[in-house]
Structures are given as structure tokens and as C-alpha cells.
């Protein structure tokens, strides 16, 4: 929802999605009309400043039965929304659809307010401040007025309501986590019982109820709550409880000290029943760790009796001071890395992937610095050099890791198998955060992964590492236009961009949301204050010199792309080169096959392989698939086509009944 001119009226416009879709100006309802204009408004707001295609809007309004006059009706509904919301709100026609642009002041969207407060609460919880977390999350949840997207057409409700409800429930569980850490377990029991009655299959709530009952001195009731959860899951789904819930059940049986709450200095525990004797005894033990709600059963601080007493490694490079965007991705990763309950295997190892220059390392370092206090045994960063000509071999990587955890160089084993065993022994019962940057492939990575659930691993790779077992993946995509503009302004200077806004927009658009390109251009603008932005823009937007312009100091987009290009198989490189000659729109496999001189199935496989390593993006609708290239990748590939094929073929016509852009449907 990019900024436009500020609303002139002093009365704030409230746009509400978290309940019935409504608009209020200065407390007075805006008459939006029936479900269809509400659907158009909601769809545009949910797109956050991106274009919603005519195809998408048609589906949301009429499902698979659109009238013959649907283009005219779409225009009518968009015009009605523009008229009802008043001056300052831009509902614009941007082919292939429409977008909404909101001013920086004078408009409040309840969904955005909820997400901002929820993010602050989540960060406070990860930072060990449950009081602030509980307060912010409670305020966020109070914004909801009922089931989201009330009064819209069914296709939009079906597509978005479950996602929004899941977001609410996740933050509700986080608020309950914060209250549990504050010792409010007795007060939570009635609320949790009611929540479980409404959503009996949500295991997170079941686990929180078990914890609250146990801390209230009701061990038998906590065990009964587990049996009830197990019976419900078996009856409804034919499944056993998750490994997380089973571990919690085992902790209840053994009175594990991790079940104790951790009270901040400014918070007092409830005056409730005493904990079970096993818990009380554990609390008096000087060896008991500082517990959280239900963390992995590993000591929270290094044991002073270890033979390898040395300063814990703190190897993280600094996170970029001008880091911009990626709020949702960093928040999700941070939450998984600081989980208060026993983790699933895929909550311990996280792969962050995406095309060259997309900002994988920056996002991982931003996350690592936010959560480092949760890993008191140290934080290690290791560059695996996977995109270079000589990736780090596992034996060499393990030698460096063993040195970092205190093994003297003469005592590092020589054989790879022995180094693997030594590494696993040294990381057992530790709380280590391991950042493995620029991994090449699964073979080189597997020996480096700790097996203890107290350690966590953040991995960056241009490959998705899909053969790696038990990991979660975060795929980074280009920044949205508002985030791109913000990053560029941080680098180039707000006064420069404000003086030439049109040229600044042209520079940002030419970078197509790629953080490395934005960083290069912003740094170059800052280094050449005597040049106007229009001069920079003229040079950058000339396709014959765009890639040459995207180089500054030790940063070069072409070099970064070339490193990745050389790692592709010859057939994949050829497919990439010829794809670049087929125009900017998504290319179906059949069209690519004609250009490559192959069968459709072989072309589909080559394009799918390119998508798996983020050279191409998959777009699809109604079971069809096509593949598009990022604009800067396409420029690079066209250059390689001319260099390696001797000439650039005439662009082939790409005809399809469903033209797709980045704002259309993607798979």
C-alpha cells in the first residue's frame, strides 16, 4: 500500500478487515454497499500496494461463472470504492488489474495495526521480555472484531479467511506463552479450556493447558488433559499426538525442571497452589537450569564442570545497519529459533534460499543477532564458499568448527569420520547457534549438522537443498516497491531522492526489487553527489549498460550471477539463455521446447530445474505452468546468449490465453 499525497481531512479513515469489512471516517460509517464492492476493497487492501489482476478479481467476485460484462463491472466496482473512500485514496488502473495506494497519514487499516503490534510482541517474547510481549499481543488481539472478511464474496473468504485466522491463533498462543512465563498459569486455565472446546485439534493449546495445570499443582489433571488430547486426535484424525506433545507428556511424568516458569524481576508469581514436589525439589537444586515454558531439555548455561571451558564463540558478522523489509520472514525464523516448547526436527535447521543478490545472508544475520541471547554456548558463522569455484569441503569445515568450540588444533582428528564424531560430541547438550553461509549442496552440508535439539542451524544457499532431511525453508523473493524505495533512500539519502522523485522511482524500478542491485545503485548515488539522479537513471535504464552500471567497489551483480551461472549444468545454461529470447512474459514449456529444439517434457524438466535453484519463477493457473525470469536475470541471460550462441535470435511470439505478471497468480 504505497504512499500517495496525505489525506487533507482531519478525520481519520478506518478500514477494517478483521471482522465485517467496514470503513469509518471520523466515527461515521461509510456505506460500502453489497458484497462485491466490499470484496474489491478487501482484495486491494490485502495485496498491500501490489496490483490485483483482473483475472484474480473476476475469480473472487464470480468464482468460475463470470458474466460477459465482468470487465465493465470491475471498473464500476473499482470506481465506486474510489468514490466512497474519498480524496487521498488512489484506486488506480494498472494493467493487468487494479491497485490501491494509501496516504502515509490519515488512514488506519486494522490488519496492519494488528500485525505491527503482534510483531512487537513476538520480538519482545524472543528477547526475554514477556511482560511487554503479553501487553503488545493482548492489544493486537483486541483489534479483532469477529471472523475476518465478513460480508465479502465467498471466493475471497475461502481464499483468505483461514490464513488470517491462523495468524490470529498463532499470536494468541504467543500471548499465552508470555502469560505462562509471567506465572499467570491459574488464570489461564479457564481460557484455555474454552479455546480447546472451540478448536479441539489445536495441539499448541493442549500443550499450554497441560503446562498451566501442572504449574498450578494439578499434575493429575495435566496428565488427564494429555489423555483427552490423544483420544480426540485418534477419534477425529486417526493420529497420535505430535512428538512435541509427547515430549511434554514425558516431562510431566518425570517432573522435569524445564516445566518451571521463569519470572522476570518486575513480575511476581501468582499466589496459587504449590507445584508438585518433584518441581519444588528441582527448583531448590543449585544445578537446575534457568527454565522457560518448556524448552528443549538442555542446560541454559554452560556447565562449569566441562573439560573444554573456554570463552563461548561469538562469531557473527554484523547485520547490515540499513536492513530493510523481510519483517515476516525474520519474525518467523526468530520465533522458531526461540520456541518455548520442545521443537520438532524441522524447527532446528532452517534453509534460507533465493536467487543471487536477494539478501539471504542479510536476513539470516538479522535473525541471528535477534536471537543470539537464546544461545549462551555461542554463535558460530562459517562461510562455506558454495557459490565459488572451490567450496569448502566437509573435513576442512569441521576442522574450523572444532577449533571454534575449543578443540586445540593438534587434537583435531585427521579422518573425516572422526571429525564428525568429535563435532557431535562437542555439540551435545549445548545451546549453539550455527550460521552456515553459502552452502553448495547437501553432501557437503550433512556432516556439519549437530544432532542435539539444543542447537539450531541457519543455512543460506542458492539451492533449496531439497534432499536435506528435516529442515524448514524460507524462500526470499524480490522486495515490494515500498520496501525497495525505503532501502534506496537509506543508501542514497532522503534529500537526494526527495529532490528528484521521478528519477528516484526510475532507479528503484530498474532494480526490480533485488537488494544487491538497490545497494549498488544507492551506494553509487551517495558516492557521486555531483551527479543528478536523472543522469544515473539514464545510464541504468539503458539495457545495453544496465549490468555494467550495477557494479560498485567490490559489489557486482554480473559477477554474482556469473558465479551461479557457471555452477549450472550445460543443458540448464542453454535453457536459460534461450528463455531470455522469448520475451518478458511467462513462457510455457511447449514454447520453450520449440526454441530449444527439444520435446515438451524435456523442456519442462529443464525449466523446473532452473526454478528449483531460483533462476526462474513458476507461474500457473488452472493446472498450467509457465516460467518467467527476473528482469535483471533476463538481461544477463540475453548477454550470455549473444556471447555463447553468436547472435541473439529474434524474439519468438509467446501467445497464451492467460498472460501473467508478478502481480498475477503464481504457484
UniProtKB/TrEMBL annotation:
GO terms for biological process: phosphorelay signal transduction system; regulation of DNA-templated transcription. Keywords: DNA-binding, Transcription, Transcription regulation, Two-component regulatory system. This is DNA-binding transcriptional activator of the SARP family. The keyword Repeat does not apply. Residues 5-102 bind DNA. SUPFAM superfamilies: C-terminal effector domain of the bipartite response regulators (SSF46894), P-loop containing nucleoside triphosphate hydrolases (SSF52540), TPR-like (SSF48452). Residues 259-327 are annotated as: Disordered. PANTHER family: TRANSCRIPTIONAL REGULATOR REDD (PTHR35807:SF1), TRANSCRIPTIONAL REGULATOR REDD-RELATED (PTHR35807). Pfam families: BTAD. CDD domains: BTAD.
Amino acid at each position: 500500500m504505497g504512499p500517495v499525497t496525505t489525506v487533507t481531512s482531519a478525520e481519520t479513515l478506518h478500514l477494517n478487515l478483521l471482522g465485517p469489512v467496514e470503513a469509518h471516517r471520523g466515527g461515521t460509517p461509510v456505506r460500502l454497499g453489497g458484497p462485491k464492492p466490499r470484496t474489491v476493497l478487501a482484495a486491494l487492501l490485502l495485496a498491500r500496494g501490489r496490483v490485483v489482476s483482473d483475472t484474480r478479481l473476476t475469480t473472487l467476485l464470480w468464482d468460475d461463472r463470470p458474466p460477459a460484462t465482468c470487465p465493465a463491472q470491475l471498473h464500476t466496482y473499482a470506481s465506486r470504492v474510489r468514490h466512497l473512500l474519498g480524496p487521498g485514496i488512489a484506486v488506480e488502473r494498472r494493467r493487468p488489474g487494479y491497485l490501491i495506494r494509501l496516504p502515509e497519514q490519515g488512514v488506519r487499516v486494522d490488519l496492519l495495526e494488528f500485525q505491527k503490534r503482534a510483531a512487537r510482541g513476538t520480538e519482545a517474547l524472543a528477547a526475554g521480555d514477556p511482560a511487554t510481549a503479553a501487553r503488545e499481543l493482548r492489544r493486537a488481539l483486541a483489534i479483532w472484531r469477529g471472523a475476518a472478511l465478513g460480508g465479502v464474496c465467498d471466493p475471497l473468504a475461502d481464499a483468505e479467511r483461514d490464513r488470517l485466522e491462523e495468524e490470529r491463533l498463532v499470536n494468541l498462543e504467543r500471548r499465552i506463552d508470555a502469560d505462562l512465563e509471567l506465572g499467570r498459569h491459574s488464570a489461564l486455565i479457564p481460557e484455555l479450556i474454552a479455546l480447546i472446546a472451540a478448536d479441539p485439534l489445536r495441539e499448541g493449546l493442549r500443550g499450554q493447558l497441560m503446562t498451566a495445570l501442572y504449574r498450578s499443582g494439578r499434575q493429575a489433571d495435566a496428565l488427564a488433559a494429555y489423555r483427552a488430547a490423544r483420544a480426540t486426535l485418534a477419534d477425529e484424525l486417526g493420529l497420535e499426538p505430535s512428538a512435541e506433545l509427547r515430549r511434554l507428556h514425558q516431562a510431566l511424568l518425570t517432573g522435569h525442571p524445564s516445566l518451571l516458569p521463569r519470572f522476570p524481576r518486575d513480575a511476581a508469581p501468582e499466589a496459587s497452589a504449590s507445584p508438585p514436589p518433584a518441581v519444588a525439589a528441582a527448583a531448590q537444586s543449585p544445578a537446575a537450569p534457568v527454565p522457560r515454558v518448556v524448552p528443549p531439555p538442555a542446560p541454559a548455561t554452560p556447565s562449569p564442570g566441562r573439560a573444554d571451558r573456554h570463552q563461548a564463540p561469538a562469531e557473527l558478522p554484523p547485520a547490515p545497519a540499513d536492513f530493510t523489509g523481510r519483517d515476516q520472514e525474520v519474525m518467523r525464523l526468530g520465533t522458531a529459533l526461540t520456541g518455548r516448547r520442545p521443537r520438532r526436527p524441522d524447527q532446528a535447521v532452517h534453509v534460507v534460499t533465493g536467487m543471487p543478490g536477494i539478501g539471504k545472508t542479510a536476513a539470516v544475520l538479522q535473525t541471528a543477532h535477534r536471537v543470539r541471547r537464546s544461545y549462551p554456548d555461542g554463535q558460530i558463522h562459517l562461510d562455506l564458499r558454495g557459490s565459488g569455484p572451490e567450496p569448502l569441503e566437509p573435513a576442512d569445515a569441521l576442522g574450523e568448527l572444532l577449533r571454534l568450540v575449543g578443540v586445540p588444533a593438534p587434537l583435531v582428528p585427521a579422518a573425516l569420520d572422526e571429525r564428525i564424531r568429535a563435532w557431535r560430541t562437542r555439540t551435545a547438550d549445548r545451546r549453539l547457534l550455527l550460521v552456515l553461509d553459502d552452502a553448495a549442496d547437501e553432501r557437503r552440508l550433512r556432516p556439519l549438522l549437530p544432532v542435539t535439539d539444543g542447537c539450531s542451524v541457519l543455512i543460506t544457499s542458492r539451492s533449496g537443498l531439497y534432499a536435506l532431511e528435516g529442515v524448514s525453508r524460507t524462500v526470499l523473493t524480490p522486495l515490494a516497491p515500498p520496501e525497495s524505495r525505503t532501502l534506496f533512500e537509506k543508501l542514497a539519502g532522503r534529500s537526494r531522492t526527495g529532490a528528484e522523485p521521478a528519477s528516484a522511482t526510475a532507479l528503484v524500478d530498474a532494480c526490480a526489487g533485488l537488494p544487491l542491485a538497490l545497494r549498488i545503485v544507492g551506494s553509487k548515488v551517495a558516492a557521486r553527489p555531483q551527479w543528478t539522479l536523472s543522469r544515473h537513471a539514464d545510464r541504468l535504464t539503458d539495457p545495453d549498460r544496465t549490468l555494467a552500471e550495477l557494479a560498485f567497489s567490490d559489489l557486482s551483480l554480473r559477477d554474482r550471477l556469473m558465479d551461479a551461472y557457471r555452477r549450472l549444468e550445460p543443458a540448464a545454461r542453454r535453457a536459460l539463455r534461450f528463455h531470455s529470447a522469448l520475451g518478458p512474459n511467462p513462457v510455457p514449456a511447449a514454447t520453450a521446447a520449440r526454441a530449444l529444439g527439444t520435446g515438451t517434457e524435456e523442456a519442462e524438466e529443464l525449466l523446473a530445474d532452473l526454478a528449483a535453484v531460483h533462476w526462474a519463477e513458476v507461474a500457473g493457473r488452472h493446472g498450467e505452468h509457465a516460467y518467467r525470469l527476473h528482469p535483471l536475470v533476463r538481461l544477463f541471460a540475453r548477454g550470455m546468449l549473444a556471447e555463447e550462441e553468436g547472435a541473439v535470435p529474434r524474439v519468438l511470439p509467446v501467445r497464451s490465453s492467460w498472460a501473467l505478471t508478478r502481480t498475477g497468480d503464481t504457484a
